[in-house]
Amino acid sequence: MSQIRVAVAGASGRMGREVVKMVLEDPSLELVAAISHSADSSMDAGRAVGLEPCGIKITNDLELALVEGKPDVLVDFTTPHSVVANTALAIKYRVRPVIGTTGFTPEDIEEFDKQCKAQGIGGIIAPNFSIGAILMMKFAAQAAKYMPNLEIIEYHGDQKLDAPSGTAVKTAEMISQSREELRQGNPNEKETIEGSRGGLYDGFRIHSVRLPGVFAQQEVIFGAFGQTLKIRHDSYDRAGYMPGVKVAVNKVMEFTGIVYGFEHFID
Q: So what's the pLDDT on residue 98?
């Protein structure tokens, strides 16, 4: 079986470096392009991640990289400000997008699904590629059938740009699919400090904590008469996301259209 040709957008970022390293170390994958707007364009991508030189220079021109590298897949861990344009460009050149960046609206996803189908390619947009995080979401959705009163608390570093996190939003969506909308708490509740009860989603609350020294954690807390249940996932290292990214790179070669959420690949 031939290698899957992979381009990495955001190659100099913390997640992007892990993707580059994973691709270079996997014999079934071939790195054909590394794109970053902040890195030295003369830097070899292998050397940039602490490996031997691989012959692929980091570039800041995504379109040129797609044209010259002819990748099968673009893995994108960039920013919400650039990911939509990156995805559109990848689909234009029939490159399958595997997106780990948040910033899409439902309308964006619907439009990219149409474009992928028209091009005869697949694409994956996933707020979280951690297998443990996906299991946390699935367990939470299952628990919500029996304990519908809940709140979500997610924790990230203080430099994270979006709140709530894509993982928290995806968790809320999955919970809402298995739980009827329920307005929780005292109907006369009043916030004396605006926002202190968190964001409201389908009747329950989402709280975003942003602190230095925090990596990525999330817990879903369920309350019922005489008991509580907490389902929590903690990430400690970005390398923990790479097994899921590898699964996505392989799976995206097998279907047409956009799949939203990595949970569709976890039975």
A: 97
- Sheet of 216-224, strands arranged across: 199-201, 204-210, 150-156, 216-224, 227-235
* Confidence at residue 181, expressed as pLDDT on a 0 to 100 scale: 84
Under the banding of pLDDT at 50, 70 and 90, the label for residue 1 is low
Identify whether residues 222 and 248 lie together within a single domain: no
Query: Which ranges in 50-191 belong to alpha helices (H)?
Result: 62-69, 83-92, 106-119, 131-144, 166-178
Candidates 52, 65, 68, 72; CA nearest to 1 is 72
What is the domain count for the chain?
2
Q: 62 by DSSP, 3-state: which?
A: helix
Cβ neighbors of 209 (< 8 A, separation 6 or more) are 153, 154, 155, 156
Q: Which residues are catalytic?
A: 156, 160
- Integer Cα distance of 265 and 61 in angstroms: 32
Count CB atoms within 10 A of the CB of residue 41.
Answer: 10
Detail the residues annotated as belonging to a binding site for NAD(+).
Answer: 10-15, 100-102, 126-129
| Bind-site residues | 10-15, 100-102, 126-129, 166-167
Output the CA angle 62-67-68, nearest 5 degrees.
Answer: 100
Is 190 found in the same domain as 246? no
Residue range(s) defining the domain that contains residue 28:
4-125+238-265
For 142-195, how does the pLDDT look when each residue is reduced to its tens digit (9 = 90+)?
A: 999 999 999 999 999 998 888 999 899 999 999 999 998 888 888 888 999 999
d(CA 101, CA 29) in angstroms, rounded, equals 21
pTM for the predicted model, two decimal places: 0.81
- In the annotated binding site for (S)-2,3,4,5-tetrahydrodipicolinate, the residues are 166-167
